[in-house]
């Protein structure tokens, strides 16, 4: 047994033999008044939660308007955390209604539970059905309804890829952010043996019998009505207002629900039972109490009295601590408690509680990460053993030396062939003419464009000499021209023009 004030090994496996006590024995040691439900007292806690939520929302709205913007950026996260935590405590009261622990009147419990759950977008009657089944089958490896651990064969790629510190942190964040909505909508972390997709919003889901259909529809209508109210508020005050005063606190509330439910039912010391071994009492004892410090009170002790809650779920939360203390001496080693800080515990359980497997008794299954851990260990061990054996083998060095010697012979032969070829007369006889021819071709390719330009310029001046018209037009002018000043002026001008054109063309 691990009590809060004891320094004990919280990872030691809990006993799995049939307990030496019965449920009746536990009821006898609990003071009778702990079973009494007071409508007025229950409503007082409900009113306190609702008042606290609206008070902090109003206080935030007032302070934000007068605070400097730097302080406002700090005030908003504080408001979101406080408001979301209050919403989680508010939900715990609705959870109590589902167990008929709010009052002596079932109709009152269902009415209050329906209103609270609907305001938090939770389908009350749908959740009530599956949650009752969870309490009836707690600890069963096959029939529990939520946080159903997987067998080794079901460990998939995602678990392998996230089996590292960043991956585990990602899993923690995703679980807190969207775990609760995904459970309600598509039964994530729930039983996976239904014949089709199971959803708390589907009246014909395999989760429900025919007698549940109408209640599921009523639950859906409650959530739909709350959605319409939120839409109206958003349209009136703006989406940012809705985000700050409802949606972000709602996300914090989701994180609280996942954290509490996961940590109260997932722990290395807790067993799961196959059908051959399971019974209700041992299954109900497969839970663990956690310490959430001051949040134990805000969350109405669903956290630190969870073992007692699974044994006696109708005990109202304001008697839960007293009832839990009363049964601890009877429970002895069957009572499990862990004071590990919550975030550290969430990370540890995400790391170590990958799947369940038998360890000894085939009907008793324990959490393990052996598949991932051992797969890596075996691969590393095999590699190291093979490497060690190779390094200690004389044949390795002989084979390596032979291989290296053969490669050196090939390289040496290649170098010798190159050297002898370079020193032979035939090499020069074949290579030098080829080099001369190659250089000649290169020179011709470079000089050819220049020769073409020169010939073009020469032709420009020589071509007219072959024309009869040239002499008929030129001779009379040529004979008379030397006797005129214009001849010399035009001649010089034409020569300069021709030279300019020639240079431009070149």
Describe the overall structure:
With 506 residues, the chain is mainly alpha-helical. It has two domains: 23-378, no CATH class; 467-506. It has 19 helices and five strands. The protein has helices at 23-29, 39-66, 69-98, 106-119, 124-136, 157-161, 165-186, 213-237, 239-265, 280-284, 295-298, 306-311, 320-331, 342-352, 370-391, 394-422, 425-462, 468-480, 485-505; strands at residues 271-273, 289-290, 337-338, 355-359, 361-368. The strands form two sheets. A three-stranded antiparallel sheet has the order 1-5-4, with no helix packed on it. The chain has a two-stranded parallel sheet with strand order 2-3. Strand 4 and strand 5 (361-368) form a beta hairpin. Helix 1 packs across helix 13 (320-331), helix 4 crosses helix 8 (213-237) and helix 8 crosses helix 9 (239-265). The chain is elongated and about 145 Å long. It starts with 22 loop residues before the first helix and ends with a helix. The model is unreliable at 374-380 (pLDDT under 50).
Please give the alpha-carbon distance between the first and last residues.
106 Å
Radius of gyration: 45 Å
Largest beta sheet: what is the strand line-up? 1-5-4
Largest sheet: 3 strands, antiparallel
Number of strands: 5
List the domain count as a whole number: 2
Number of distinct helices: 19
User: Helix/strand-derived class?
Assistant: mainly alpha
Helix content: 55-70%
Give helix and strand order, one letter per element, not per position.
Answer: HHHHHHHHHEHEHHHEHEEHHHHH
Basic shape: elongated
Strand content is: under 5%
Mean pLDDT: 83
What are the low-pLDDT stretches, counting only 5+ consecutive residues below 50? 374-380
GO molecular function, one term: oxidoreductase activity
Keywords: Membrane, Transmembrane, Transmembrane helix
InterPro entries: FA_desaturase_dom (IPR005804), Fatty_acid_desaturase (IPR012171)
GO biological process, one term: lipid metabolic process
């Amino acid at each position: 047994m691990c009590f809060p004030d004891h320094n004990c090994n919280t990872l030691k496996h809990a006993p799995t033999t049939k307990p030496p006590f019965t449920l009746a024995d536990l009821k006898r040691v609990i003071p009778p008044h702990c079973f009494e439900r007071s409508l007025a007292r229950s409503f007082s806690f409900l009113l306190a939660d609702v008042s606290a939520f609206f008070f902090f929302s109003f206080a935030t709205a007032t302070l934000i308007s007068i605070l400097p913007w730097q302080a406002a950026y700090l005030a908003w996260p504080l408001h979101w955390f406080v408001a979301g935590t209050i919403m989680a405590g508010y939900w715990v009261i609705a959870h109590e209604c589902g167990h008929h622990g709010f009052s002596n009147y079932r109709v009152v419990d269902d009415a209050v539970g329906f209103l609270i759950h609907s305001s938090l977008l939770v389908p009350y009657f749908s959740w009530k059905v599956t949650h009752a089944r969870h309490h009836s089958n707690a600890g069963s490896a096959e029939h529990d309804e939520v946080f159903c651990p997987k067998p080794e064969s079901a460990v998939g790629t995602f678990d392998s890829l996230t089996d590292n510190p960043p991956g585990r942190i990602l899993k923690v964040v995703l679980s807190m952010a969207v775990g609760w909505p995904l459970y309600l909508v598509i039964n994530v972390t729930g039983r996976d043996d239904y014949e089709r997709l199971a959803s708390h919003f589907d009246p014909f889901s395999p989760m429900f019998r025919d007698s549940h259909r109408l209640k599921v529809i009523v639950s859906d209508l409650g959530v739909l009505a709350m959605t319409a109210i939120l839409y109206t508020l958003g349209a009136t005050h703006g989406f940012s207002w809705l985000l700050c005063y409802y949606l972000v606190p709602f996300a914090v509330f989701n994180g609280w629900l996942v954290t509490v439910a996961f940590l109260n039912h997932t722990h290395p010391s807790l067993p799961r039972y196959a059908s051959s071994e399971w019974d209700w009492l041992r299954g109900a004892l497969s839970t663990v109490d956690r310490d959430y410090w001051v949040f134990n009170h805000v969350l109405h002790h669903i956290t630190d009295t969870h073992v007692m809650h699974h044994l006696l779920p109708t005990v109202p939360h304001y008697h839960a601590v007293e009832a839990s203390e009363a049964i601890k001496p009877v429970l002895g080693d069957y009572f499990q408690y862990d004071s590990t800080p919550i975030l550290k515990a969430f990370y540890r359980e995400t790391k170590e509680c990958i799947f369940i497997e038998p360890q000894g008794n085939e009907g008793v299954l324990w959490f393990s990460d052996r598949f991932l851990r051992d797969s890596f260990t075996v691969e590393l061990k095999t590699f190291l053993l093979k490497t060690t054996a190779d390094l200690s083998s004389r044949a390795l060095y002989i084979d390596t030396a032979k291989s290296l010697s053969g490669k050196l012979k090939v390289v040496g032969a290649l170098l010798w062939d190159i050297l002898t070829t370079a020193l032979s007369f035939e090499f020069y006889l074949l290579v030098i003419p080829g080099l001369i021819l190659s250089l000649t071709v290169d020179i011709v390719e470079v000089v050819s464009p220049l020769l073409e330009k020169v010939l073009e310029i020469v032709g420009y001046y020589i071509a007219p000499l072959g024309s009869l018209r040239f002499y008929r037009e030129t001779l009379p002018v040529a004979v008379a021209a030397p006797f005129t000043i214009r001849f010399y002026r035009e001649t010089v001008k034409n020569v300069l023009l021709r030279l300019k054109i020639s240079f431009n063309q070149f």
